[in-house]
Amino acid sequence: MKKRKSQCGRRGEKIFSTACIVPSLIGVLVFFLIPFGIVVYYSLINNPVMKDYVGLENYSRLMDNTAFRRAARNTAAFSLAAVPLAVILSLGLAVLLERKIPGRSLLRTFFLSPLMVPTASVVLVWQVLFHNHGTINQVAEAFGGEPVDWMRSSKGQVIIIMMFLWKNLGYNMILFMAALSSIPRDIIEVADLEGAGGWYKFVHIKLRYLSPTILFVFILSLINSFKIFREVYLLTGNYPFDRMYMLQHFMNNTFNNLDYQKLSAAAVLFSIVMIVIIAILLTIESFFGKDVES
After folding, report:
1. Which residues contact 199 (CB under 8 A, 6 or more apart)?
2. Are 228 and 160 in contact (CB under 8 A)?
3. What is the set of domains in the chain, with CATH numbers?
4. In whole angstroms, what is the distance from residue 34 CA to residue 207 CA?
């Protein structure tokens, strides 16, 4: 009798858990999987009217497109520079602010303040600083230097990287500080008793426990790096200087031109690249974090 009751109880729990999951599964299906399937379908036909299957012809056209290659190259260069910097600098700030240094609360406030500023206001500040007749050029001229049109020069992407770091370091820093505070104190105390130095403790203890957070911050920073289009668009419009032309510019302009096949092919390629990158990151994190779990 008790066995039958326990079986009924487990069956009721399964039914209840399934009922709770079903709405989320329906939402994922309706808003993610079906739209992505439609995008893949559009990338394999010639146009929405004729709907003739053309295989990988749209992908071939996309790879031969000069604007797409320039946008992909600029986006890759930006992400390769900005994302590692965002992770390393925010981790360094978290380790620094973990110590009892003067003005720690003030520094936290300073790095968190960009999170409260709207994107349009951020862009306005950077326009004032780096405009052709902005503050930076005025200071340079005061010391005998030559003004630089920052937004139309090869240095434009450096400005965007600085803006990205200024906007995202604070949030990443808070995530790392929370992870540092969750490291077991007894392990650190044992390392202190055995005479371990600060660098040894950081590399062999703290980094091991921080590996899931590092992965999360890396993926979050990677996603945020693809959102830099908002800032660049507000700064320079649809067609910025070549070095600041990102994938989002290409997709936005392609959408405006109603070239859905090229847009769909670009979206599918972009998704594949993101899936591969995240899979590699998960594999690396699993390798370095398995001894912590054990």
Report:
1. none
2. yes
3. 66-293 (1.10.3720.10)
4. 40
